[in-house]
Here is the input.
Amino acid sequence: MQVPLQVNHVTELIAAIATAPGHGGIGVVRISGPDVRLFANQLSGIDPKPRHAHFCKLRDALGDVLDEGILLYFPAPNSYTGESVLEFQGHGGPAVLNLVLDRCIDLGARLALPGEFTKRAFLNNRIDLVQAESVSDLIEASSAQAARAALRSLSGVFSQRINGLCERLIELRMLVEASIDFPEEDIDILDKFNACQRLLDLQNDLGALLVQAQSGKRIQDGVSVVIAGPPNVGKSTLLNAFAGDDVAIVTPYAGTTRDPITETIQVGPVLLSMTDTAGLHKTLDPIETEGISRAHKAMRTADLVLWVIDATSKELSEPENIPENVPVWKIYNKIDLIAQHSGLFGGIAVSAHSGLNLNKLREELRIFVESRDFGEGAFTARNRHIEALRLTRDQLDQALQNYEVCELLAESLRTAHQTLSRITGTFDSEALLGEIFSRFCIGK
Ligand SMILES: Nc1nc2c(ncn2[C@@H]2O[C@H](COP(=O)(O)OP(=O)(O)OP(=O)(O)O)[C@@H](O)[C@H]2O)c(=O)[nH]1
Ligand SMILES: [Mg+2]
Here is the structure.
């Protein structure tokens, strides 16, 4: 049993262009609020039937046609927001869509804030907070896996797990409260209903969910590829080649790069973040030393390290100081300087300078990202969720320590319950909601 958030009923009509900015075949203007049926009539002269595609012309105040397209009407509560919603699918140009939007404003709607449609869906109990966040995660998903995982969160997989734990916490709380309220009972209620074992099981399952949420966060973050290796082997040149731009300084001098430089790179349909780092070697230079320490830090959190080797050098370097669980690929660079290179090297041989074999490396990266296995049923999660799960775990630890003192036990369980329900938003403040929804795009 969850306690729904208390909200004021929303009465304003909001409107926004729901499709991405730019030119496209179709553009959508979405309107939500009370009484959109009347609004549809003013806009198009049509009295729309629920969930029916009406072909219509939209007109301005003088009766001139603004655009023609499809009008859809979803009466409350069976709509995205839970309110009555109108969607106009017209031509996808910014100028024409803005004409339609301006007309909606003239007729009394106001511009929607970022995420306001989804916020209304939350306020109308159509979805919980985790689901609302997954809408934005789905839109921003950088790979097919991330999209699938966000969709699982949106369909409630993560929320159900949270709600299940909340239910069990509530049962425990009831047992503890009962043993406080009826101390004179002959039987020990906590013993009779195995409260201690229940608490231990709950702690266990919460730990398992925390591990899954952490993995869900990694799906959401996308893949991090770190370019590392000795100085002057062509690391920055490789980053520039992938970025298609001179983002990192390249010089013939060893020790050029100091700060890690991260760029978002597109490989096929997938986005990954690629970080160039300072060349690793022994040095007394304090600035280089700091750069090298930052390079090590980047490698520790990488999903993959590309260890770049200068294929022309007499001593080919071997990857070193790479954390055990991070995969490493050897990249032999500068093969344009070698007359006969095919079959010479075990790793991937490229020329960052001329672009030779970079497509092969790009393809290997795409396969790597797409084949990462997060297990069946993976869902996306955010830092906010992970923090709340950790805090709940600590509060349950506290409850176990306080087990013998009923009042303290009750208090620890109460705070644990409160922390856990904040994840789905059943106990939340306006401030947090503002923070979450302001990161959405307008029209969602
Ligand atoms: N011929 C050739 N030269 C390259 C290639 N890649 C890099 N270089 C040259 O090698 C030199 C060093 O390149 P960088 O990209 O700055 O090397 P780095 O590994 O980032 O060096 P540090 O930042 O000092 O660690 C520059 O003169 C580049 O033009 C390549 O594939 N072929
Ligand atoms: Mg460099």
User: Anything to note?
Assistant: The radius of gyration is 28 Å. Residues 235-236, 248, 256-257, 276 surround magnesium ion (ligand 2) (CB under 6 Å). The chain has three domains: 14-126, 144-219+378-424, 226-302+304-370.
